[in-house]
Amino acid sequence: MAFGGFSKEANTAPMAEINMVPLIDVMLVLLVIFILTAPLLTHAVKLDLPRTASQENHVQAERIDIALTPESEIFWNGEKLDAAALDARMQAAGAQVTDPANAPEIHLRADKTTPYDAVAKVMAAAARAKLSKIAFVSQPE
Fold it and tell me: Distance of CA 108 to CAs 64, 67, 93, 120, Å?
């Protein structure tokens, strides 16, 4: 702990050690100061807010049920359509969308033996109409 010596010899070299005790003392003092002042730094305004009885307003998005049969027949909410009418209805539904969060949901019900080509055409028609919420409906096992 000494910084020098009382030796009169000429071969005494300076100490190459760092005394860590004062540094640790300073760190502990700073830690205590921060622990004591941290609760004082929180600013909270006490308010007595009014109580009301209301419910959240959930806007239910429109749901479009599209069914595909094994023969690639298309049904829009139970009504049979051809590919041109499907495209026209998709464009009309997409034109009514003002907020993408409230865009109609398309529930696609396809038979397991329906060709993938028919499913892809329905999805492409929805993409062209900028309808991106598509759900595939299935039966649980």
Answer: 8, 6, 15, 11
The H or E element containing residue 29 is helix 21-37
Predicted local distance difference test score (pLDDT) of residue 62: 81
* 61-77 core/surface letters (b: 16 or more CB in 10 A; e: else): eeebebbbeeebebebe
37 is written with which tokens? Answer: 């002042």
- Report the alpha-carbon distance of residue 126 to residue 117 in Å, rounded: 14
pTM of the model: 0.55
User: Residue 12 is encoded by which pair of tokens?
Assistant: 């005494």
> Which CATH architecture best describes the domain 63-136?
2-Layer Sandwich (3.30)
Alpha-carbon distance of 30 to 121, in angstroms, equals: 69
Domain spans in the chain, listed from the N-terminal domain onward:
63-136
